[in-house]
């Protein structure tokens, strides 16, 4: 009890000390040297990476230790995202997060399973009380894994401040050997308005990059006039691995004075969506290339150290400028790119023709569109910029521009399905058509009488799709009527075409059993060590439901003693 009270006391005492980061307070959560496959705030799909991805030697099951004293303040188990995740709050106000875990330490695992059996759900989120799970530094808290949306075994580790903002763990002295310079892969240049040109063109261009012996770069000279800006694709490599990770800081200079800076130190989760305005969204969406802009346009991100509208370069006729980009990693290894800009009025330059449509989207206004059975509602501030939208409805297909504009809010798409029979209505869903063959990708669809409603941040082509195929369920590691006395696990495969799996429920002799679902291997796993199966003759029943409500039931018998 004394320990609990003193923990509380220390909490209130240090809660305001946020600006200086305690050094050597947080230790390496693994027993192996720190090698990273991902750095803080590196650019990912629709978000900045919120922690470090620590490599686990291509294995799962490595011991994960508490990085400092504290208590387990949150446990979340989910099919996607972080998978199994543990949050430890520390007396200095920071929280460490450990994600994609295989399982928790025995004490925590028992706590979690109790909740899962009570709620009859694998997915849970709990916020234990301070005294429930007190943790000392270096205590075993979990085993590393690959659960949730993880693409290979690793430990995702975060440090968050009191406002739940993820911080760069390296600020706390988490030390990663890094002696090489960041690497620049490509540079783009953008004319930023109708009257601006680069090399007589009004559209963005990739410019030729020449690596120098010392790790810096030169580019081809460019001729420009008007307002221009640049964008970069750069990465960093640490000493102990070949992984391409994110960089720490980027600065740009025009004729020796700094005109832009971005710093990957800390961000908040509600601003992570603005990554799509930081990158060239069109290039990412169409070519999967992630180029980040070196100018700040309509972007409230707090990672910028420069004010709004910084990074723009105004090029006048008959001038000569030197533009420099400095890319640095956390250890201050740096790479410089030098670009010579000649101000040249071009006689042949023609502005890019903008396609005009009847649907002009004003970013700061609400727009409601309706055509036959489809309506689309864009709320105020859905987009960053004003633009002419392509909008067309043919039968049940909605052409809603192309996925080339970043959105910061969901818009809604509503289909009136009155013309369909009741039976068909129930099997319909709204799909986004993707790829060359227009594969219908399920979009979460709500039903309200004769309306189907989906929300999305992605423009593109949508259509109604029908799912009449039930999920399939099969056993993986046993046969009907088999004796499974020596088995530790019961494994089932579940699959669904079209709309995908929405939920599943497994019982033995009528009693709910915990089955962990791994969507990547389509596997449900029950651990007999849960101790809930005590009968000899066991009737297993698994019901799986897809996203439009088709369901399948699988029943089988097995024996155990
Ligand atoms: Zn991660």
Q: Can you describe this structure in just a few lines?
A:
With 561 residues, the protein is mostly beta strands. The two termini are 43 Å apart. Bound molecules: zinc ion.
What sort of overall outline do the alpha carbons produce when their principal axes are compared? globular
Estimated helix fraction: under 10%
Q: What would you report as the Rg, rounded to the nearest angstrom? A: 27 Å
Secondary structural class: mainly beta
Q: What does the main sheet amount to?
A: 12 strands, mixed
- Report the β-strand fraction as a percent range: 35-45%
Number of helices, counting only DSSP H or I runs of 4 residues or more: 5
- Could you give the distance between the termini? 43 Å
Name the ligand types: zinc ion
| Poorly predicted runs of 5 or more residues | 1-5, 7-19
Number of strands: 47
Task: Return the average pLDDT rounded to an integer.
Answer: 93
């Amino acid at each position: 009890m004394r320990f609990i009270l003193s923990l509380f006391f220390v909490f209130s005492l240090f809660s305001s000390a946020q600006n200086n980061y305690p050094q050597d307070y947080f230790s390496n959560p693994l027993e192996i040297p720190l090698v990273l496959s991902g750095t803080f705030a590196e650019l990912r799909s629709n978000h900045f990476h919120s922690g470090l991805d620590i490599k686990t030697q291509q294995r799962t099951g490595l011991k994960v230790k508490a990085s400092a004293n504290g208590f387990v303040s949150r446990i979340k188990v989910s099919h996607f995202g972080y998978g199994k995740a543990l949050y430890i709050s520390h007396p200095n106000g920071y929280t460490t997060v450990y994600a994609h875990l295989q399982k928790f330490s025995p004490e925590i695992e028992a706590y979690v399973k109790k909740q899962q059996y009570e709620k009859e759900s694998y997915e849970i989120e709990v916020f234990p009380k301070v005294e429930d799970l007190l943790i000392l530094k270096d205590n075993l808290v979990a085993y590393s894994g690959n659960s949730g949306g993880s693409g290979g075994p690793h430990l995702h580790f975060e440090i968050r401040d009191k406002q739940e903002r993820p911080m760069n763990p390296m600020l706390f002295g988490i030390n990663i050997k890094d002696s090489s310079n960041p690497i620049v892969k490509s540079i783009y240049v953008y004319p930023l308005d109708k009257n601006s040109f680069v090399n007589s063109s009004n559209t963005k261009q990739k410019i030729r990059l020449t690596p120098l012996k010392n790790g810096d770069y030169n580019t081809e000279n460019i001729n420009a006039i008007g307002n221009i800006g640049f964008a970069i694709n750069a990465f960093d490599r640490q000493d102990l691995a070949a992984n391409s990770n994110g960089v720490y800081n980027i600065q740009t200079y025009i004729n020796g004075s700094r005109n832009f800076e971005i710093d990957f130190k800390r961000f908040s989760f509600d601003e992570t969506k603005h990554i799509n305005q930081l990158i060239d969204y069109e290039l990412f969406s169409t070519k999967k290339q992630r180029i980040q802009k070196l100018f700040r346009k309509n972007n409230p991100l707090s990672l910028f150290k420069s004010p709004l509208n910084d990074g723009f370069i105004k090029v006048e006729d008959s001038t000569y400028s030197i533009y420099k980009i400095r890319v640095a990693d956390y250890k201050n290894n740096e790479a410089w790119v030098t670009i010579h800009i000649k101000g040249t009025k071009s006689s042949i330059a023609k502005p890019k023709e903008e396609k005009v449509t009847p649907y002009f989207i004003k970013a700061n206004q609400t727009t409601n569109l309706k055509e036959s059975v489809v309506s689309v509602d864009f709320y105020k501030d859905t987009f960053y910029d004003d633009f002419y939208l392509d909008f067309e409805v043919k039968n049940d297909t909605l052409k809603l521009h192309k996925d080339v504009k970043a959105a910061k809010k969901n818009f809604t798409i509503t289909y009136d399905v009155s013309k369909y029979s009741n039976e068909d209505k129930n099997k319909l869903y709204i799909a986004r058509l993707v790829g060359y063959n227009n594969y219908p990708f399920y979009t979460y669809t709500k039903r309200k009488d004769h309306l189907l409603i989906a929300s999305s941040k992605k423009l593109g082509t949508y259509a109604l799709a029908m799912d009449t195929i039930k999920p399939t369920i099969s056993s993986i590691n046993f046969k009907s009527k088999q004796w499974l006395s020596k088995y530790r696990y019961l494994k089932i495969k579940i699959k669904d075409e079209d709309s995908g799996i929405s939920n599943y429920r497994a019982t033995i002799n009528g009693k709910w059993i915990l089955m962990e679902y791994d969507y990547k291997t389509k596997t449900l796993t029950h651990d007999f060590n849960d101790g809930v199966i005590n009968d000899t003759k066991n009737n297993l029943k698994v019901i799986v439901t897809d996203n439009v409500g088709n369901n399948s039931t699988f029943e089988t018998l097995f024996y155990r003693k």
